[in-house]
Amino acid sequence: MDLLELLKSEVSMLNIKDKFAIARYIYIRTGELFEYDPLYEVIDSNDRETQFELINKKIDIRNVTDFNVICYSWSHMYHDLLKEFDIDSNIVKTFCHNHVIIKIDEKEYIADLMKDYQDIFLTKFGLQTKYNHQTLTTREEQNEQLKQIDEQINYYKGIHTEEVLAQVKMELQSKYKDSDDYMYNAFKTVTNIMNFHRTNVGYISGRVYIRYLLRYFLEDDYKPCSARIYNANNDTYIQAYSVESKNKQHYFIYQKMNNGYYEMNEVNKNLIEYLVKSKTYKSTYSKNLHLAA
């Protein structure tokens, strides 16, 4: 993919002139197109060679063939893209994280798509970002500025935005709030939402969005109930979930399907036990799955 040509064409088509609006559009589009590389989460701390490769990966903005990035590679790519639009920026480097500071008319704007995996998933679902705004301003000022710019660049095109999620939550509570299987039906609702969005997301952003949705629907009843199961050698990453309903344990997994998309589905306990015990995979936090129950 010629990413630079694509962005230039889209910016021209939307007739975006303001420099921060252009920078924000590029920020959002890279969030939609790229995925945090799950390999960086699971590599052995002693595997210096792989760490070095991921940290120093260079994305050719004229010929993108790999859409998995981490903060280091994304920051350099974003900086390169801004330069092509005559927008000044600096890469801020720390020991374990990189982000970008944009400079326009003596004002500075932060761009940190990868921080805490937040904006890399929020941009995929049309939700308000947290780490792309003018510095030294209040949240209210930031929200007002972003609202005007996001309308200009046609953001908020995701169907399941805050307003729609509020409606879904109200309907879920009206049907099941006082029943024993409210939590199970919350998981089923999340499953439907995730499968609607399956063309948008990868492993990391999908996993973070599932957590976001579960916390939103379950509120104080939310508690850790998931485990990561993976085989980095064949690029297999699975998130497994457990939920109790009417004294019975139910299981869900989020994984890449044969069509290349990630989906969330309810599965039986035997499959979860196989994945956790299999020598083909490694797992973390499997005790959260209550397999002994």
Question: What report would you give on this structure?
Answer:
With 293 residues, the chain is of the alpha+beta class. It has two domains: 150 residues, C8orf32 fold; 114 residues, no CATH class. It contains eleven helices and eleven strands. The strands form three sheets. It has a five-stranded antiparallel sheet, with helices on both faces. A hairpin with a 5-residue loop joins strand 9 and strand 10. Helix 2 runs antiparallel to helix 5. The longest helix has 16 residues. It is globular and about 60 Å long.
Number of helices: 11
How many individual domains? 2
Oligomer: single chain
Rg for CA atoms: 20 Å
- Shape, per Cα inertia axes: globular
* Poorly predicted regions: none
CATH class assignment of the largest domain: Alpha Beta
Largest sheet: 5 strands, antiparallel
The fraction of residues in strands falls at 15-25%
Order of helices and strands: HHEHHEHEEEHEHHHHEEEEHE
Per CATH, the architecture of the largest domain is Roll
User: Strand pairing plus helix content: what structural class?
Assistant: alpha+beta
Query: How many strand elements?
Result: 11
C-alpha end-to-end distance: 49 Å
The CATH topology of the largest domain is C8orf32 fold
Strand order of the largest sheet: 10-9-8-7-11
